[in-house]
Amino acid sequence: MQDKDQDAFEAAVKTMMKSVGEDPDREGLQKTPERVFKAYEFMYGGYKEDPKAILESAIFTSSNDEMVLIKDIEFYSTCEHHLLPIIGRAHVAYIPDGKVVGLSKIPRVVDVFSRRMQIQEQLTEQIADAIMQTIQPKGVAVVIQARHMCMEMRGVEKINSTTTSSALRGLFKKDEKTRAEFFNLINAPAGNRY
Ligand code: ZN
Predict the structure, then answer these.
(1) Residues 108-119: pLDDT tens digits?
(2) pTM for the model
(3) Active-site residue numbers?
(4) I want to staple 130 with a disulfide (CB 3.0 to 4.6 A). Which of 20, 24, 51, 156 is the partner?
C-alpha cells in the first residue's frame, strides 16, 4: 500500500503534466508519477542523513599534519530555484590537527549535501563547515566546479559554461603558501591513475 505522502506527490506530478499540456493517462505516462516519486526519494535522500554523524563515525587520532586532498569527487545535485540538475566535481582538502577521517567519508558527505535542494555556493560552504566542525583541522578547502542545467536548458547562459565556487577555512584562508599549494594540486593534470 502506498502511503498518503506518495499519493499526494503523484497527484502533484499529474497536475504538472496537465498544466504543460500532457495527458497523464496516456499509456507512456501512466507509471511516470510513481517513477518520479522514486527518483525524488533517491535524489533528495540527503535529508535523511546527517553529514556530521557520518564524519564522526570514522575519526582517528593521527600525527599527520600534511594536506589531505581528495580531488574530482563527482556529484549530482539540483538547484533550489528550478529543481534542475547541477552536475559537478568537488575537490576537498584539509590539514589535520591530531585527527583524520576515513577517506571514504568525504565523498559521502559531498553526496549527502548534494542530494538536497541546493545552490552551489551553499553546497560548497556546507561541506567545508561540516569538516571544520567535526574533524577540527588546521584548515579546510573546498572547490566546486559545476554545470547548471537551469542555465543551459533554459538558454540563460552559454552551453558548457562552468561555475566555480570555493570555501576556504583556517590555514587555507590565512596562509598564502598553503592556499597556493592547494590550487596547484587541484589544477594539476590528472596523470596516470594507479
Ligand atoms: Zn536554478
Answers:
(1) 999 999 999 999
(2) 0.92
(3) 79-82, 120, 148, 150
(4) 51
